[in-house]
Write a structure and sequence with these properties.
The structure is a homodimer. By secondary structure, chain A is of the alpha+beta class. The first copy, chain A, folds into two domains: 9-77, Orthogonal Bundle (Arc Repressor Mutant, subunit A), CATH 1.10.10; 84-243, GAF domain (Beta-Lactamase). The first copy, chain A, has helices spanning 9-20, 29-36, 40-52, 69-77, 84-87, 89-99, 141-148, 152-161, 167-183, 225-243, and strands spanning 56-58, 65-67, 102-109, 112-119, 134-136, 186-189, 196-204, 210-219. The structure holds a DNA duplex. Chains A, B: It comes from Paenibacillus selenitireducens.
DNA sequence: TGTAATAGTTTCATAGAATGAAACTTAGTT
DNA sequence: AACTAAGTTTCATTCTATGAAACTATTACA
């Protein structure tokens, strides 16, 4: 039996166009149409619609398309009171000042994690962490935290959906997760970015649900395994304080 | 001859749904459908599509719809390097500290102006200025600046499109605009908000195009006409400095 | 200067996608 | 239990969205 679609194709396509602008700021019509594999005329019509509603504007100079003010406006009006990225910023800055390393805040979103807030170390050599970045949930200290401390159902689903190279690796990963659960923190050592290491701990809100992962990251030269082990309690303590500020 | 539409209706409707969330953070299906005047089933289908692409999520607790992370993500990746709201913030803070009043930055958008940045006075009685707010271009000091110092074509078009109560008023307004052009700044006295006054000056980018309107606003008790006249040169000077930082 | 190439825009016949009425599910209220 | 309200799904029909092709504007280059 062929599943009836419950979505609207034209809208899907228009949203795909918007999503193109997560990686690029300025795109031409042809560029977009080849990116999402649609005819120029179709893309043009969708762009006109997006432009009319203020979601897309054109760069005066280059004539190329870019995101319009409406996107910004919607984001500005998005609830800020209960937004961790907003509330926890001062505490993150404090932690950065104490440790001298870059501090980031991650949320799980589907099979990815997304960096919703970051404050940079002010040392010469430092981890640079752009806010808004997405990364796969399969690697990195914060990924492991987001999986290990997620609610049972969520974790099961995630482990299901993440593909593993082999069964042995799967087993190894699961045992790593229980270790993380026992310790209360996760580390990563050049897992995703060469030369970078990170410690990550869970932040729980007042109703004891996982709210985010808090990570401290820097160059391997300063963050040895031993050093991260030492820092972990301090970071956990900060995370505990932060959690009390949520919901 | 019936104009052929160059836009896509389904997409227009979906975007209208998103735009609903500029005023409210949480909305139910029925609420939305009555707001934009469409059938529940249609709205439901559009919402499902928006949800699948991450533009809408559902509030766990209330089951209501709200904006998703994608909106935030897009805004986060929006070009920040050349964004006045970002670049001018430190200078705005400095001005606020000197004058002790709320400082705002406005952009023209269609027949409206939009507050793209603001720093609040820290006095007990102060003008509160939420970022992202829209207001009609017909009233307020910054509106007058945005019109008076706009490029010739833009100004003509705006004056055309803004409706006037009477011809006399129109004449009065036009003469007011030339006065503003001569002075280099505009003021407003309880024009839009009772008890509030404001001085506004243009910010020009390096290629001498109007980039934004910079406003200082506060209670009429502190901002008399005389006082605003005194402040104007200082604000203009700050605006000049800011302009040099753009493009 | 002419010619080709490239990017963007509009037109139009046609397929099939989007639509809204209605039926159906929950869940909450009287 | 009957009623009300919000949300969800189904389905026949219509009109909308589609992509091919034509057209325009701009740039490259010979």
């Amino acid at each position: 039996m062929e599943e009836r679609k419950l979505t609207v194709r034209a809208v899907e396509r228009a949203l795909d166009i918007l999503i193109c602008f997560t990686t690029d700021t300025d795109l031409g019509l042809t560029e977009i149409s080849s990116k999402i594999g649609l005819h120029k005329s179709t893309v043009h019509r969708l762009l006109t619609t997006l432009e009319e509603k203020g979601f897309i504007t054109r760069n005066q100079a280059t004539e190329k398309y870019r995101l319009g003010m409406r996107v910004w406006e919607l984001a500005a009006n998005q609830s800020q009171e209960d937004d961790p990225a907003h509330i926890l910023l001062p505490e993150m800055e404090r932690l950065r000042d104490v440790l001298g390393e870059t501090v980031s805040l991650y949320l799980q979103d589907g099979k990815e994690r997304i960096r919703i807030q970051a404050v940079q170390s002010n040392q010469a050599i430092r981890r640079v962490a752009p806010v808004g970045m997405r990364a796969p949930l399969s690697v990195g200290a914060s990924s492991k935290v987001l999986i290990a401390f997620a609610k049972e159902e969520v974790r099961a689903e995630l482990l299901e959906s993440l593909e593993w190279v082999s069964d042995e690796e799967n087993g190894h990963y699961v045992s790593q997760l229980s270790e993380i659960q026992a310790l209360g923190y996760a580390t990563s050592f050049e897992e995703r970015e060469p030369g970078a290491a990170a410690v990550s701990v869970p932040i729980y809100d007042r109703s004891h649900h996982l709210a985010a992962a808090l990570s401290v990251s820097g160059p391997v030269s300063r963050l040895s395994m031993q050093k991260m082990k030492e820092l972990a309690p301090m970071i956990s303590e900060a995370a505990g304080r932060m959690g009390k500020m949520l919901k």
